[in-house]
Design goal:
This protein is of the alpha/beta class and 354 residues long. The protein contains nine helices and 24 strands. Helix 1 runs parallel beside helix 8. Pfam families: Pyr_redox_2 (PF07992).
């Protein structure tokens, strides 16, 4: 029996499993999924878990079940591409085809104290730790959120909804929030923060983090806790692979989402160097094309000379439970409709992933 080994139970590999099972996987193949957790975490909702507006149960789903699908739970400590072996804990798992989708972790940009003194939301365990902190903060406390990208905006707004009795400061490097999107969208988000008493600090440059202080352009600002959302990078085991990578640490891939030196190895999600933000949507689009490549290969057909471009539709974010913002097909949507859109996307994902 040949072995398709999937590393990481995130959005990309979930889509691959659902596309292949029950009828597309060749009869001489089995799938093994490796993950640290015995469930699929809804990473796009970790901000709500960290703020306490969603429960742990609401941000996870069961993995699919099939007679030719099995699981190995544990941390991947080594990937040997030459020997086609992956080390998980004390076990080694071999493969015929490998898909690396181990996701990302926080990038602290060598800022002193950032890793030691910041709370984060990139991984579920970190979001749980952040939840404990946000739930136990005394009234009147100040939380500094470093980074005003999508994650920073969502955790700051969700925290405002769950803790109306604390002060929130959102540190943004740019002149305006979400500078890559239309000014109308930025102004809407900024206005929401003003109306909901979240202080946005533009032109920020956090140079140091202490237990109860953030240093912004060398100015010491007192905070009771810091939440870091200022960048991500592939997990360390992926960054340590001796293959070509971009400056971001993400792995260079060809149009078939393979590493150029080994057609048996595919990269999906946050670990892949793509001309798009590393999002759940991008990972799922990649996964669909990877399955198409599998089908060509298994049918002994020549791969297309040019793969279609990934059709990333846009971005949707929430501002608490009632408002949101979206940029879809070059159209800006704000307010209640955008929030309904985000809830609908999540509902459809859960429905299709069952």
């Amino acid at each position: 029996m040949k072995r398709l080994l999937l590393l990481g139970g995130g959005y990309g590999n979930m889509r691959i499993m659902h596309k292949l099972l029950p009828n597309t996987l060749p009869k001489d193949y089995e799938i093994i999924l490796v993950d640290e957790k015995p469930f699929h975490g809804l990473k796009t909702e970790y901000y709500a878990l960290a703020a306490g507006t969603k429960s742990d149960k609401e941000v996870r789903m069961s993995f699919p079940e099939h007679e030719r699908l099995s699981y190995v739970y544990g941390e991947v400590s080594n990937i040997d591409l030459d020997k086609q072996l992956v080390t998980v804990g004390e076990n080694q798992v071999d493969y015929d085809i490998l898909v690396i989708g181990l996701g990302s972790e926080d990038k602290f940009h060598n800022v002193p104290g950032a890793k030691e003194y910041s709370y984060t939301i990139q991984r579920m365990n970190n979001a749980r730790r952040t939840l404990k902190m946000t739930a136990e903060l005394p009234s009147g406390s100040t939380v500094g959120v470093v980074g005003a990208g999508l994650s920073g905006i969502e955790i700051a707004s969700e925290l405002r909804e769950s803790r109306k009795d604390i002060n929130i400061k959102l540190f943004d490097r740019g002149e305006r929030i979400l500078p890559d999107f239309p000014a109308r969208l930025s102004k809407y988000v900024e206005r929401w923060f003003i109306e909901n008493n979240v202080e946005v600090i533009p032109h920020s440059n956090i140079t140091k983090v202490d237990q109860n202080k953030l240093y912004n352009n060398e100015e010491a600002i007192k905070v009771d806790a810091s939440i870091w959302t200022a960048g991500i990078q592939p997990v360390e085991v992926v960054r340590s692979l001796d293959i070509e990578k971009a400056k971001s640490g993400r792995i260079k891939v060809n149009q078939y989402h393979q590493i150029p030196t080994d057609e048996k190895v595919y990269i999906v999600g946050d670990c892949a160097d793509l001309p798009f933000p590393p999002t759940a949507q991008t990972a799922e689009l990649q996964a669909e094309q990877i399955v198409d490549v599998f089908k060509y290969t298994w049918a002994d057909k020549e791969l297309p000379g040019t793969m279609p471009s990934l059709k990333v539709q846009g971005m949707i974010g929430s501002l608490g439970s009632k408002e949101g913002f979206a940029y879809i097909k070059e159209t800006t949507v704000t307010g209640r409709i955008a929030r309904i859109l985000k809830s609908g996307v999540l509902w459809m994902y859960k429905l299709n992933a069952k």
